[in-house]
Amino acid sequence: MHKIAEVEVQHDIMVANRKLARRNQRILDKDGVFSVDVVGAIGSGKTSLIEALIDNMNYKIGVIAGDVISKYDAGRFQSHDVPVVGLNTGKECHLDAHLVENALGDLPLEEMDVLFIENVGNLICPVDFDLGSHMRMVVISVSEGDDTVEKHPLIFQDADLVIINKVDIAEAVGADAEKMVSDVHNINPEVKVIKSSLKIGEGLDVIIDSLQGFMKKF
Amino acid sequence: MHELSMAEAIVNTVLDVAEKNDAEEIVEVTLEIGQLTMLNPEQLKFLLDVLSEDTPLENSEIIIEDIPVEIKCRNCEFTGSANTDDSDHYLTIVLCPQCGKRDLEILKGRECNVKTIKIEKSDEDA
Known about the structure:
The complex is a heterodimer.
Chain A: E1 2-12, H1 13-30, E2 34-40, H2 46-56, E3 61-67, H3 71-78, E4 84-88, H4 97-104, E5 114-118, E6 135-141, H5 148-151, H6 153-157, E7 161-165, H7 177-187, E8 192-195, H8 204-217
Parallel strand pairs in A: 2-5, 2-6, 3-4, 3-5, 6-7, 7-8
Chain B: H1 3-20, E1 25-34, H2 41-52, E2 61-67, E3 70-73, E4 79-81, E5 83-84, E6 94-95, E7 104-108, E8 112-122
Parallel strand pairs in B: 1-2
Antiparallel strand pairs in B: 1-8, 3-4, 3-7, 5-6
Helix pairs in contact in B: 1-2
């Protein structure tokens, strides 16, 4: 004879990640490391922005370079002589708190002020995965098209700072940067949006000021 | 986009619980997916079917319950169901229904929860 039984499971896969994220934040807090989750579209300039911040911010910086294959970006950061951990996500489209926890163990946190975590280029999946960072900076560029914000609202709803990069080529690619700014504010009215062109150094000082403002509140 | 890894985590959870409860077969699995979770239920179901092959999950029915968004507004203190616009399930923008602001704490709507499973077991184990 067989019988049917109902078993209460109540195991939330998302909660498991959020618990790990809180633990990551406690690890970072213990050593006083301010951390920024840098998310954005592929090719929007996330790596270039972090490189510019390493060179122009007067802090001891470390980087977690997350990518499907991370060695390319990790190599770029290493050439700036900062501690770097590359995280290969392989088939995965995002970093999660467990991967970041492993990387934290390989960084000299006690010697660092700021940690940049470069997420996989993707405006969708990282929304679901809190890493335990203190803020999230979203980087997009005009070359993705000026409807990018409208098409990916959730990542902007959660953003603490938004960078719209490559504004110097907006006209050439037929994009309206002002529309992108107003689209962000439609979704997240309070968030600061900075237009930049990292290639020519435009907007970098404003980004640094803004990050320092967040660090003061840390 | 990360339905495959989520489906793997769900299958592992279900098989683990089923084994601990001496299940011979899993008849039904009920999942709760929040409206703000970036998972497409159709893709998730498809991948669960694929991953279930040759496991005790193979012939089970997968039920996905949609969890609406509940919020606490940091502006006006409203707590309850959010206003969500009518865009797609996983592109929902959330507003406070009382003051219209978006500075909110999300209380519900981000779940990927294995809620219950129904299993078949032999009476002798009971």
